[in-house]
Amino acid sequence: MRQGQHGLSNPSNLKKFRNWMDRNCVDQDRLNEIDIEAEFGKDLSYNEAVELALHKFPTFWRPDYLKDYEQKPKQIIFVRDLIRRLSEGQIQVTYRKTPKIGTYYVIENRFKQTANSSRILIEFYQTDKIDAYKLTDAEARLAGIESGDKIRELFEKWYGIPIPMLYRNWFKIKDLSSSKSQAG
Fold first, then answer.
1. CA-based angle 81:85:163, to the nearest 5?
2. CA 55 to chain CA centroid, nearest Å
3. CA 32/CA 18 separation, integer angstroms
4. What are the angstrom distances between the C-alpha of 78 and each of 10, 71, 108, 120, 182?
5. Listed residue (103, 139, 141, 143) closest to 124, CA to CA
6. Which of 52, 72, 137, 144 has the least C-beta neighbours within 10 A?
7. pTM recorded for the entire structure
8. Is 84 buried (19+), middle (13-18) or exposed (0-12) by CB count in 10 A?
């Protein structure tokens, strides 16, 4: 999904991620324990790599950074139909290549928001590593998709074949409002 110049294969993204690691680590010597290519791959975005680093190596990072990161809302993209179902309480999880930590504003497009877009704030509270090929229909419905086969079809489209190991990220809605009411 994120390959080429958008992932860590882009030298500037990799440099940005290494700089983040240097700025936020507790002990520089511990960074030598991390093989970036083996642990993160080249297709993760900078933000995905940060989230994965926080999850895989929680004791490596400054406590003040962790607290600030978890409290500051980030953005997560859902397709329009899933945003509707999420706002109706029909979705409890999202399956992603990285674990999710903290609070996120749900958006449908990272570049263009409409004036009447919903502003949904969700908070992730649990993450499980999963094998997409073993997902049941019931587990797919947790994410708003009708069957295990349908969700695997989407994963193949988004992540390629074979589908990599994914994270099931459980969340709850913290706030549900519209952009118009926030502006007024």
1. 65
2. 11
3. 12
4. 25, 21, 5, 11, 21
5. 103
6. 72
7. 0.69
8. middle
Q: Determine how many CB atoms are found less than 10 A away from the CB of residue 152.
A: 17
Report d(CA 54, CA 75) in Å as an integer. 17
Q: Which of 73, 89, 90, 86 is nearest to 118 (CA)?
A: 86
Which residues share a beta bridge with 179? none
Look-up: residue for tokens 């390629």? 160
Q: How far apart are CA 82 and CA 85, in angstroms?
A: 5
What is the total residue count of the chain? 184
pLDDT digits (tens, 9 = 90+) for 159-178: 899 999 999 999 999 887 64
Tell me which amino acid residue 35 is.
Answer: D
